[in-house]
Amino acid sequence: MKIENDADLAVLAQAGALQGVQRIELVFPKFTDGRAFSQAVLLRRRHGFTGDIRATGDVLIDQLVQMARSGFSSAVLAPGVHTEAAQRQFDRYAAFYQGDASQPLPHFARAANAQDGGRKAA
Amino acid sequence: MYHYTDFDRQFIRLRAEQYRDQLQRWQRGELTDEQFLPLRLQNGWYVQRYAPMARIAVPYGEISSAQLRVLARIAREFDRPDPELLAHAQRTQDQLQASQPGLTLAAPPLQYGYGHFTTRTNVQFNWIPLAQSADVMDLLASVGMHGIQTSGNTIRNITSEATAGVAPDEIVDTRPFAEILRQWSTLHPEFAFLPRKFKIAFNGAEEDRAATGWYDIGLQAQKDEAGAVGFTVKVGGGMGRTPIVGSVVREFLPWAELLNYIEAVVRVYNRYGRRDNKWKARIKILVKAEGQRFIDEVEAEYQAILRQDGAPHTITSAELARVQASFVVPALTPASVPSETTLSSKPFQRWMARNVAPHRLAGLTLVTLSFKRTGWAPGDADAGTLEALADLAERFSAGEARLTHEQNLILPWVHAGDLPALYDAARALGLAQPNIGLLTDLIACPGGDFCSLANARAIPIAAALTELYQDLDEVTDLGPIDLHISGCINSCGHHHSGHIGILGVDKDGKEWYQVTLGGSDGSRLSGPAMPGKVVGPSFSAAEVPGVVEALLDTYRDLRTSAAEHFIDTLRRVGHEPFKLAANAARLDTTRQSARQAEEATI
After folding, report:
1. 3-class secondary-structure state, position B53
2. By the 8 A CB rule, do B334 and B364 touch?
3. Contacts of B158 (CB under 8 A, 6+ apart)
4. Rounded mean pLDDT of B327-341?
5. pTM for the model
6. Residue B150: which of B115, B177, B120 has the closest Cα?
7. How many structural domains comprise chain A?
8. Residues of B with CB below 8 A from A108's CB?
9. Using CA atoms, how far apart are residues B341 and B87, in angstroms rounded to an integer?
């Protein structure tokens, strides 16, 4: 199922259009048009979509990490891109400040939980 | 100051490493110019008229001696144009000057080897080759500095009033909140490709010294009757082609909700902000077009974040306490340096009156070092000055300084007994002009000497006015006046908020200047934030000093006494007499030579 980047997800969800869908394709008409990032976040966080969310259109490998953090699970890359350069981006940061689609809590809350957990275990 | 944790330090180092990887891929041809553009922009690297420009973030303006020393090193070792490039740049500027005979002012030669303080507490360098940009990022990372999101359509460097934590009229110290917001906005995955740039400013004092009405989001700290801290949230302010003052969308947002609420605002903007027209893409246009519908939409999104998402970004008391612990009063020992200054001398007394302000702690003062002096563009500091500032901050102010949005630098922890010695040191550096808040404490962007967006040069205008008004008796008598100069409608020089605003415009490849009157940044002196009004058709550069002189003469003629400030006289009598005086200051000869020049080029 393809969802345009100006579509109203709440309307689609209410109409049941997301039910039983295995893959949603979101669109980047230009890599500078960031609307689909918000759509992916809302699909995961607000509408509980657990299938594949695929980034299509003008997708740069330097956006893949932020796409993954926003809830995308796959992306269509232009032919000939260096996938090892993309992998390096994924390996770089161990954690980020703010919560995201895969890690809802911000860093400060995770750090506090880890500390509490540590204390309890001790 | 905020003490960076291992996580914070490592994060900035990794960002520098990531940037190097991206730069190298671009150099190898794996990234096109177009693909590399947003990557370098999001690290603060523009390419300007002649060379790359690096914009380094100084979050909420707070900077340490160690950081100033690294900026000095960058100025000395990296801000060095290749001689051929510099010669080409100077030739091109000379041609610009020669192409409009009779219309221009003396143009100082292009400078290099210095940092420039901006109106948004960033520091810019103008000549660093891109090939060295990754080395500069590494160097910056060594002292917790970076250029993350100082450009691009992202959430930009978070600012606050320069006197946060030290002003006597403070309601809340906003620095911990600005730091929490800095962390939240840094590499936010959802908001890296917004319709347009997004600027957030805090103010925690009774007086708005951060121009919060002019920001995409302006946050004014408040305490309710029970003493609980919250923020009045203004959204949709901005300058540019359509100057709009922000609207209050929340009277009192509890501090813990700051991130949840701002996420709602930015998400609504990301979804609905215009992407078809760069000039209509800022959130101010959306807020103006949609009005209450925008506010309703934000409220609905905010409620969904709270109820459906479980308010994941609620700031905990523990996190606030952790960050606040960094912003305690530093260990303060008087420098006790002997001074040769005669305390009763007029220059020292004048400096005390203009550049020294009261502190919230007894025995301490705030000292503003003036970066408005002849021979220098406003806000410029070379390597030697930056190094000396590091020493001054260390000796007199617990190793800490603040950049101001007026392009000066404040030492926030100065013992009253050290003022004579500090005055000596500041004077030796040429930073003791007693002009803070006065006419010659003017704001100016780099303009057409460096910026590729500029329509006209700003530095020669600033230089001419600084030269013209060197008489301190006269400048002091004229009293507080905000004079702001922008080289183009992007308004980096905040001309809209100047009592006198000067805006560079381009007509047929020639530089012209619109003059506006009556703008306000929202300070107590200037009244509620508002844009100034244009006095008439634009002027040549050669005419501008005469126009400013005519405006000031009119003020002196019409004021009830020296106690009535320029802005108050203007508001009392209206713009008409000022307009007449400004338009009468046009030079016929200039018009003639302009026409001759035009005819000659046809």
Report:
1. strand
2. no
3. B59, B60, B178, B181, B182, B185, B200, B201, B202
4. 92
5. 0.96
6. B120
7. 1
8. 183, 316, 319, 322
9. 44
C-alpha to C-alpha distance for B511 and B17, rounded to whole angstroms:
42
Burial (0-12, 13-18, 19+ Cβ within 10 Å), B275: buried
Query: Is A121 part of any domain?
Result: no
Q: Which two tokens stand for residue A107?
A: 């860093």
Closest Cβ–Cβ partner in A66, A85, A109 for B316: A109
B561-577 pLDDT, tens digit each: 999 999 999 999 999 99
Q: How far apart are CA B230 and CA B210, in angstroms?
A: 17
pLDDT tens for residues B475-515?
Answer: 999 999 999 999 999 999 999 999 999 999 999 889 999 99
Q: Provide the domain limits for residue A109.
A: 2-115
Edge-to-edge order in the sheet of strand B62-64: B62-64, B400-403, B409-415, B364-369, B356-358
List the structure tokens of B149: 């999101």
Of A117, A100, A99, which Cα lies nearest the Cα of A108?
A99
Among chain B, residues having any CB pair with chain A shorter than 8 Å are 7, 11, 14, 17-18, 21-22, 25, 30, 35, 38-39, 153, 183-194, 259, 267, 270-271, 275, 304, 308-310, 312-313, 316, 318-319, 322
SS3 B247: strand
Residue A120 within any structural domain of the chain: no
Interface confidence (ipTM) of the complex: 0.96
3-class SS of residue B52: strand
CATH number at residue A85: 3.40.50
Identify whether A73 is part of a domain.
yes
The answer to whether residue A122 is domain-embedded is no
The DSSP string of B329-374 is: PPP-----------TTSHHHHHHHHHHEEE-SSTTEEEEEEP---T
DSSP B277-342: -GGG-SHHHHHHHHTHHHHHHHHHHHHHHHHTS--TTPPPHHHHHHHHGGGSPPP-----------
